[in-house]
Design goal:
Layout lengths: L1 E5 L4 H13 L6 E3 L2 E3 L7 H14 L2 E3 L2 H18 L2 H5 L3 H8 L4 H12 L3 H19 L4 H7 L5 H12 L3 H6 L12
Antiparallel strand pairs: 1-3, 1-4, 2-3
Helix pairs in contact: 1-2, 3-5, 3-6, 3-7, 7-9, 8-9
Amino acid sequence: MKLHVKNMVCPRCIMAVEQLLSEQNIDFSKVDLGLVELPYAAIEDEKISRFRAGLVQLGFDLIDDHKTQLINQVKQLVIKQLRDDSWRSHRMNFSDAITSAIPYSYNYVSQVFSENEGLTLEKFIIAQKIEMAKELLSYGELSLNQIADKLDYSSSAHLSAQFKKVTGISPSEYKKLEKPDRKALDSL
């Protein structure tokens, strides 16, 4: 049985859900971003209700309908792809990654995403890339060229232009801010 969980965006989220499952004595075979796999086909409604309540306390929730599950799966895939350096070695773009992982056409996925999220899938991907750029800029370990390469931009000029369009300031201006404006990945 698969349970889809909303708002899981990092390895700590996986650990928190695994801990909750253990505390509630719910056997699981795998926990991944946005997904809990149980070794059996059904679970009692009472256990599901307790698990959902525990998830809500942690800032997560169970997803029941198909379109919401699809959107969550796409979001998790985009976040995972941005965080995983190995995908760049394959030079797979987001649309190819999405269609290889999800059994629907990119047009359908994009349409469902736009209708339900109020922004296009492309804008969501850009927002995720800009938040990742903010994070990398705040560390101060990489040059703008390295960040552009890491985020698969054609050049640092392209990253800078998109950064300014989204945030209203340039990357160099962002680095000078005392309290940089960062957003949680699950709130985008």
